[in-house]
Amino acid sequence: MSDAFQWLYSDIVKEHFTNPKNVFDPDEEFRTDAEGVVGNIKCGDQMMFLLRIEEDRIADVRWKTYGCASAIASTSMLSEVIKGMPLREAYGIKPADIARKLGGLPENKIHCSVLGDKALRAAIDSWLEKHGRTGEFKGEDAMEICHCLNITDKDIEQAVKDGARSWGQLQEATKIGTVCGGCKVKAEELLHEFAHIYGD
Amino acid sequence: MDNRFVYMDYNATTPLHPEVKKAMIADLEVYANASSMHESGRRARGRVEKSRKAVADLIGTRDPETIYFTSGGSESNNTVFAAMYEIGRKAGAGRRKIITTAIEHPCVLNSAIHLRDEGFPVVFIGVDSRGRIDLAALERELDPARSEGGPSLLVSVMAANNEIGTVEDIGRVAALARAAGAFFHTDATQAVGKMPVDVEAWDVDYLTMSCHKIYGPKGIGALYARNKAPLVPLIRGGHQEKGVRAGTYNNLGILGFGVAAEYARAELADYGRRVGGLRERLRAGIVGKVPQIRVNGHQREFLPNTLNVSFPGAEGEAILLSLDMEGIEVSTGSACASGSLEPSHVLMATGVGPELAHGSIRFSLGRGTTEEEVDYVLEKLPPIIARLRRMSTVAACVDVVGDNNEHSS
What we know:
The complex is a heterodimer of chains A (200) and B (409).
Chain A: H1 2-6, H2 11-18, E1 34-40, E2 45-54, E3 57-66, H3 69-82, H4 87-91, H5 95-101, H6 115-130, E4 144-146, E5 151-152, H7 153-161, H8 167-174, H9 184-198
Antiparallel strand pairs in A: 1-2, 2-3, 4-5
Helix pairs in contact in A: 2-3, 7-9
Chain B: E1 6-7, H1 18-26, H2 39-58, E2 67-70, H3 73-88, E3 97-101, H4 106-117, E4 122-125, H5 135-142, E5 152-156, H6 170-179, E6 183-187, H7 199-202, E7 206-210, E8 221-225, H8 251-289, E9 294-296, E10 306-310, H9 316-325, E11 328-329, E12 331-332, H10 335-338, H11 345-349, H12 354-358, E13 360-364, H13 371-390
Parallel strand pairs in B: 1-11, 3-4, 3-5, 5-6, 6-7
Antiparallel strand pairs in B: 2-8, 7-8, 9-10, 10-13, 12-13
Helix pairs in contact in B: 1-8, 2-8, 3-4, 8-13, 9-13
């Protein structure tokens, strides 16, 4: 069985899927300093991060997810990586970093792993806001384009740098516009703009 | 128990029937071209014609000449749409409208979309919450006075749905199409071998079937076309299949198809009883052991082997892979497993909503399924759902528990 499983997912993915780390147990007491939720059931996954924050570090973390094996495994891996990490560093983690740590994800599964870091950033942002430090780690003027999935112009820029050239490829890379689709016009403008800058 | 292997994906494909396998092995070295005039060729051709007869018998036609061998269901469906294209594209063609449904297999949906791109009026009829097509909408669309697109050329409605198992009222749909002067085609890929299929009682012009769904080999299928129903070749070449489908006869595939058809016919009644009983055992077990689920599909008119269940709060691909690790093989309507961003078009067409579509699992049983296997699934499934729901952000909040316990016959 494990041999057959391997071609779909790495052993690390399998391990994090079957024995996910830091999952929130509804019966446990977990002091939560910050909470972030992103995603939407309509597109098949939703992610929640709960953080305990001490001296600008992530002292402990819990999460929940409605999602596929890739989503579960990448959230689990992300939660392990950020434990003890300074907030600023955790804020900068990208889905590609997590996918690499998981020993890679199948091409068509990358988009399933993009929600974890967003939920994490949402949690950190909410904590900063609560402490009068709103937007402290945000890149210079990152602008939210897709409000359903909190995808910014920076995310679109990164996707284009990584090769996205069409709306479909941008969706594959970021899941942008897969919920209400209201951002499509604005996102396509940016796509063309960045494609012009980074295009071949 | 650890190395258990339970295959419950028979709607995807089936293993060879032991008798099919035996016959194919015995004929593995029959290499003669079935179009050759010499003795070996004639003998090979004899086998082809014997299979044609067996396939004709399976779908209730006395005329084997109405059976055209193809490479499978997709080719058969494409052949019908290609014929419609040839008729409808001619200048002055009065009938061009194509009516099909929202729950067809992608090879029908995409064939219809292709005709729409070529300028044909194409309509996709919706279904109710149990997957039955909207007959009032069909009647309206067939009536040029009450709908757009002019008189209809073709109505194509699947006999039974591959995902949710709902069986359509094909006899009635065919009669409506005929009364409106349209050709009628049914994709019976999932119906054949699982329920009685009778092209004469149904009164259809075209019927699609596939061999690997009935315990035969892959790469072979057939199209039934009523005498005088128009056909044009998708593959041009020699005179095989009356010039409708060129290419050297696939002796071994056709032989396997014939044997599979004979056994499917002989075992049909027993199959319905036995597999239907196992499906009911599985359904009742899941309903009893897993809270807050929905049994999808029709409650009376369904394939005896197909059970589609939504587990809100848990995601389908995660369920599938968890079952896979226990040696249980099923399929899901989740977007994550499809490679697209959309969940099952069939479940979405029934209006259950994305949560139920993403969390759906199809168990499709078959000849090889045993009571022990069903019980093994019933042992492994509940903790998997409980585990995924426990780590889920989405609370399972569905009141509808499918009470799908009546049998169609």
